[in-house]
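Q: Joint fold for the lines below.
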Amino acid sequence: MLFGIAVFAPLAGALVSGLLGKAIGDKGAMGASVLGMVIAAICGPVAFFQLTGGADPAVLDLGSWIESGRFHVDWALRYDTLSAVMVAMVSFVSMLIHVYSIGYMGHEARPRYRFFAYLSLFTFAMLMLVTADNLTQLFFGWEGVGLCSYLLIGYWYDRPSANAAAIKAFVVNRVADLPFAVGLALIFFKFGSVEFSTIFPAVAQHGADTYSLFGSTFSAIEVIGFLLFIGAMGKSAQLGFHVWLPDAMEGPTPVSALIHAATMVTAGVFLMARMSPLMEYAPYALGFVTFVGASTALFAATVGCCQTDIKRVIAYSTCSQLGYMFAAAGVGAYQASVFHLITHAFFKALLFLSAGSVIHAMSDEQDMRKMGGLAKIIPITCIVMWIGNLALAGIPWFAGYYSKDAIISATYAAGTGIGMYAFICTVLAAFLTAFYSWRLLFMTFHGTSRADHHVLEHAHESPWVMLGPLVVLATGAVFAGWALHGWFIGSDWPHFWNGAIFNGPHNQVIEHLEDVPGWVELAPLVVGLLGIGVAYVMYIANPLLPMRLAQQFGPIYRFVLNKWYFDELYNVIFVQPAIRLARLFWQVGDVTIIDGVPNGLAELTSDGSREVVKIQTGSLAVYAFAMLIGVVVLIGIFMLSR
Amino acid sequence: MNAVANAAGFPILSLITWLPLVGCLVIMMVRGDEQTVASNARWTALWTSLLVLVLSLVLWVKFDPSDGGFQFNEHVTWLPEYKVGYSMGVDGISVLFVLLSTVLTPICILASWEAIHTRVREFMISFLILETMMVGMFCATDFVVFYMFFEGVLIPMYLIIGVWGGPRRVYAAVKFFLYTLTGSVLMLLALIAMWVHAGTTDIPVLMHTMFPAGMQNWLFLAFFASFAVKVPMWPVHTWLPDAHVEAPTAGSVILAGVLLKMGAYGFLRFSVPMLPQAAAHFAPFMFTLSVVAVIYTSLVALAQEDMKKLIAYSSVAHMGVVTIGIFTFNVQGISGALFQMLSHGVVSAALFLVVGVVYDRIHTREIARYGGLADRMPGYSLVFMLFMMASIGLPGTAGFVGEFLVIIGSLQVNFWLALLGGMGMILGAAYMLYMYRRVIFGRITKDDLRHILDLSPREWAVFAPLVVLTLWMGIYPSSFTSFFDASVGAMVQQHTAALAATTKLAGIMH
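A: Joint structure:
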């Protein structure tokens, strides 16, 4: 019951603030929206603790949705450890973001009810996604977060760049959603249902099912695994589908925090964990998951090192951290990936919101080259951002230390070739993570100020309505890992997860997390400290070094700076051809070829006949003529074929 | 000779069908100056169509969804020596289309309230005749009766485009007439051939008549010529954008909402149940044309600069999904096709009304002439957003269910069919969002847009039922699918049995 309230309170808040916003005013709308979130943020965690306290998992059936022959899905909420932990995190973090937004959007000239309605709707869609009891409802939430991200990224709709980014986010996600939908159809085709409770027990029996594609035969489970993962790649911005994520920074900063921490991008990781009973029977798909995840972790980290926009650095960091989560899921350590998802939610929301606080203080300046030395002006923001980065870099006893190290150990413990590849990638990425995090800190808060003095005069610490959420999140970034690791990946994990995540009989990764050699456990910390050291040398001790390096390694620097030219590549191979093809089909296909013939005919009849009479005789003649020809031809054919 | 024994207790289908003509008579009798005549014509048409709507709701309430056959049957002997009778009846496949027609007609009349100011009386008469023809076509259970209504629809529509249309209305009307007529002639021949073979034109009897395989192929092609144009399928779709662009708003609404469904309805009523072998034989051909339609017309929509043309092309793409669903011959595919037809009937009709709103104010449909409407028209932007999302197939709106069921149905046939047929999901998002951005978002730069007004109460009244339907169909589609589940199940079963019988026969002969 509490669980249901947690899911639907944000919807109620969204509807009230969105539809009645004009009538009740901005204050009323904000109040309604935040109230809905506070209710959810109380009910969600309480429902989670009830479950850990021994309550039974359950399914809350809300009524039938789609019925067609054998196909049948319900609106239903699934209450188990995985969904409860997600609901608790999403509702809690989102509530903090709502509160923060009251302060952040304070200067907005336009009515703000729209913004709060979208935020709450976004949260609702994500909650529907994580509580889905069947894949179709999951798809509802999946597309719902897509819609809300579109609305929020394009919130400042008078900016062309925001509109472009919003459309890009939606369409790129849609590209990945199509394979997901087809995978869903394939599940129905093979299992006769899309409900988890029917699919999961049946996977073992269908393990040997095959499906023909590209002229060869594959395991059906593998094909499903691949298709679902492509969907996950889109939502979670993995390599190839990542292009929408950095552009999504066009939205107001609280939106970035919501997209990157609590909702949307974590959906793909969640999907892998939710579908673990199926993925465990798709080893090749899992190998691909690890490969893509590990590659993304490294790729995004390299790009993050060269960005100068404070939000974009954090955006690429999200991309990279999601890669870690997929790498873990791919080697079978779903528990570790969900663990990292939760701790990451705290420190990433913290990082984004404190970046927002910096931007707020600097009169909307986002370029780190025009910052520096801000520690004295905005000390609280500086401290919480340090905490966020300490957690992100995996410095001992901060949240990321427990979850990220578990992932790196898991890739090593997997003992496979692809696991080793992931291990190398993630360790290298850990170095880069620490580097770009401290690069960000040094460029923003330390050293000499490069800011415009007008801006500096106005610079001020944010109000407490913004700092409050930051402090709460910072507390989470410090303690979440320490507090939760016993549950998520400690020795008692089977009891905690209670079957919500499935590990195949041959998958012993979580058991062997502690058995890796000492150097493996130490490696992330060592490279992390090294990264911090390098950042110190380059941005505090010797500030001219980065420029010299950029000149010396020009091609490499430009390649990374331009994000490996993915946008340009896609423009050439997808966007431009589509536009050219569109014009070709229209002007040549439709107008010239298809219309050519009947146009001649129509012009014959309507030529010079403005008066209705002539047109009518014209078409009557054609009518009679066509009829006659038709009759002759058909009767002829008929007699011949008899 | 009358045989009326149905759940309503009176010949309800005939009443729904012919009542609009009574309204016409009333309008014709009105005398007075032009103002009075126009006003009376509007009100009479509105009340007539509302009365028809209320009557048709009896079907909604009294229809027995568990029965897969025809209900509310009526039969009057007409030409006994030729075994042709006036017979009416609805099954799960047609009943909702009757309702779709009766819901959209009053909406159209309301939408034309101010937009049509010349020859109002004639316009309203045409519209009511159109309603009679549409409803009659969906109710007919005799092929000859069906054919007359099917063709009859052409005439009022031709007039609506040709008289009240835009600058190139004559061209568009003639093109519309020619395209749809050519196919119809071939259907007439098929009709005669069937009558010769079976000795009757009663549709339920024809559905259980086995036509020889060779003959089935020819009949299928003749039907195809007629229905493919009406759907419209690629490559005979080009009359549609022209007709839409030139038609007045209400004309576009009915054209997209109901008339486009006639072709697909024909496939479902005749081609699939009466010609099972030929339908199976030609299915790959139909799939190919449909997939091409989805991708080709979606791309063309991307390049459009006229709002109505863009939505017209998107209609062709959406109907491509429908034809894919029909020829999968499984429950999900056909149900998906039916649902897609209904949802497209609501959503595309609504989108044409959306275009009509700004057209009435600024008198242009050119996308580039707009921009930044969100500031001045928040209500309009919200409504537009909802229907755009429904058109893209967002879950929770009407557009999702049909498309999704078709993907599920088509995957059971072929992986690539599902994937390529689903391409509309991606391209649809691209062209709709791109249009929305250019019309609604950005800054207002045109002077005449600075004082543009948001939706009026009359316009809210036009949109309200469509908004409710769009969400209802998305959140609780079972209340619609339950109507046709039994009929579709029966159709699929019959189709499978017919194919199995042929295979068996072929086995014996070999």
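Q: Anything notable?
A: Chain B touches chain A through 79 residues (CB under 8 Å). The first strand of chain B starts at residue 71 and ends at 79.
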